[in-house]
Design a protein that fits this description.
The chain folds into two domains: about 1-20 and about 230-420, Alpha-beta prism (UDP-n-acetylglucosamine1-carboxyvinyl-transferase, Chain), CATH 3.65.10; about 20-230, UDP-n-acetylglucosamine1-carboxyvinyl-transferase, Chain, CATH 3.65.10. By secondary structure, the protein is α+β, with helices and mostly antiparallel strands. Helix 8 packs parallel to helix 10 (about 310-315) and helix 8 (about 235-245) runs parallel beside helix 12. The two termini are about 10 Å apart. Helices cover about 30% and strands about 30% of the residues. Strand 18 and strand 19 form a beta hairpin. The structure holds uridine-diphosphate-2(N-acetylglucosaminyl) butyric acid. Uridine-diphosphate-2(N-acetylglucosaminyl) butyric acid binds near residues 120, 125, 192 and 305.
Length: about 425
């Protein structure tokens, strides 16, 4: 297990290239199960979550080849069962159910376990499958879904915390091969849903309305192999932008889709930062003192919950009183205890963190609890006095490609050390 040591207090300058989106690539790779044809997916990031998904596809019988960001999958002959050992490492593995049901009319997939960012039910996914005519039962920790013939229907997919991203993906994939028309009301509007829909359309699916709250899918008899390039990772880009807001002296994120980052750039502008938006780049110029903020993490086009922890790191040293509320995952605040160990002044009540900015954070050994929490700790370490030691960095490798190298390319001093060499 690696640890990361961050030598704080160095300014960031220069340009960083952003990779393909993890949260787009995962369901798109799952969607390759929908066809016997060969699919070629490019700009696939080199992350452990992607590796888990490719292992799941291989276990299901797919031929998988991977070379420098390009993944080729051929799901000529597949089985429909993915048990605990195969899927337990990643919650997103539930998005294989939709394609398995669509193509084979059945799926047995282990129920995802608990999640550190809060309760993550899958009732909306299951409700969607049932509406399409699937019989669902739980047995031995597995979801057993059976639908000899899927039939289109109108399905409402919004829960008390908003729409479900992977639930929308799952139902859209199953409905692509159902009989008749499916209408998803209350659909998630995230760019990753739009990316999946555009891949499905290239495969021959008939889908309209992706990116709005109403998606209409007219089932087709068969889907075909297709080629697709994954959209840029807006959360990776946002994380570098927030780092630039913390200790940047002119940082450009390149190969991004600025329209996907509007809520992030608008929020950073409100702190008083100067931001230039290019066609596929965003530059953040550091300007004097920044202003406190009220941040509300909400479904797209709102401020992303996946950027909430990073904002807490920024606001920890922003003079004045800020609040950060997560309306999607109200318990996604594990990073606060670690930020407090570095000297941040934060109180949590319900789903709202109240942050009183302190002049500077101090380095400390800290523990990453989940992917975005670990990003927040790295951002805190970049500005802290001393050397911050981050444990359990495997969380960060799930969603950020070579983050230490990318930050070092901007002038940071981050070392990654194998635990065995620390003994
Ligand atoms: N929800 C339900 N029932 C369901 C599904 C979701 O009540 O059946 C609730 C959740 O508990 C949550 C809200 O609905 O309160 C939204 O959850 P959603 O289903 O949209 O989350 P997800 O699709 O499982 C994806 C991303 C997450 C990201 C969320 C929200 C992937 C692989 N994961 O998860 O990304 O936080 O959408 O935008 O796409 C991350 O990358 O760090 C990450 C956690």
């Amino acid at each position: 297990m690696d640890r990361i040591f961050i030598h704080g207090g160095r300014p960031l300058r220069g340009t960083v290239k952003i990779g393909g989106s993890k949260n787009s690539a995962l369901p798109i790779l799952a969607a390759t199960l929908l066809t016997r044809g060969k699919c070629t997916i490019s700009r696939v990031p080199d992350l452990s979550d992607i590796h888990y998904m490719l292992t799941i596809l291989s276990t299901l019988g797919c031929e998988v080849e991977r070379a420098s960001g390009i993944v080729r999958v051929c799901a000529q002959k597949i089985c429909t069962q993915a048990l605990y050992d195969t899927v337990r490492k990643m919650r997103a593995s539930i998005c294989i159910i939709g394609p398995l049901l669509g193509r084979e009319g059945e799926a047995t997939v282990s129920l995802p376990g608990g999640c550190v960012i809060g309760d993550r039910p899958i009732d909306l996914h299951l409700r969607g499958f049932e509406k399409l005519g699937t019989a669902i039962r739980m047995q031995g920790g597995n979801i057993k879904a059976l639908a000899p013939r899927l039939k289109g229907n109108t399905i409402f997919l919004r829960g008390k915390h908003g729409s479900t991203v992977l639930g929308t993906d799952n139902v859209m994939m199953a409905a692509a091969l159902a009989d008749g028309i499916t209408v998803i009301e209350g659909a998630a509007e995230e760019p990753e849903v739009v990316d999946l829909a555009s891949f499905l359309v290239k495969m021959g699916a008939c889908i309209e309305g992706a990116g709005t709250s109403r998606i209409v899918i007219e089932g087709v008899k068969e889907l075909y192999g297709a080629e697709h390039e994954i959209i840029p990772d807006r959360i990776e880009a946002g994380t570098f932008l927030v780092a630039a807001a913390i200790c940047g002296e002119g940082v450009t994120v390149q190969h991004v889709a600025p329209q996907h980052l509007q809520s992030v750039t608008e929020t950073l502008r409100k702190t008083g930062l100067r931001i230039e938006i290019g066609t596929n780049s965003i530059t953040l110029h550091k300007r004097g003192k920044s202003q406190p903020l009220k941040v509300d993490a909400k479904p797209h086009p709102g401020f992303p919950t996946d950027m909430q922890a990073q904002m807490c790191a920024l606001l920890s040293t922003t003079e004045g009183l800020s609040t950060v509320t997560d309306h999607i995952f109200p318990r996604r605040f594990m990073h606060l205890a670690e930020l407090k160990r570095m000297g941040a002044n934060i109180e949590l009540e319900g789903a709202t963190a109240t942050i009183r900015g302190v002049p500077i954070l101090g380095a400390a050994p800290v523990m990453a609890s989940d992917l975005r929490a670990s990003a927040a700790l790295i951002l805190a370490g970049l500005q802290a006095e001393g050397i911050t030691e981050v444990h359990r960095v495997y969380h960060i490798d799930r969603g950020y490609e070579r983050i230490d190298e990318k930050f070092n390319g901007l002038g940071a001093h981050i070392e990654r050390v194998k635990t065995s060499s620390l003994r």
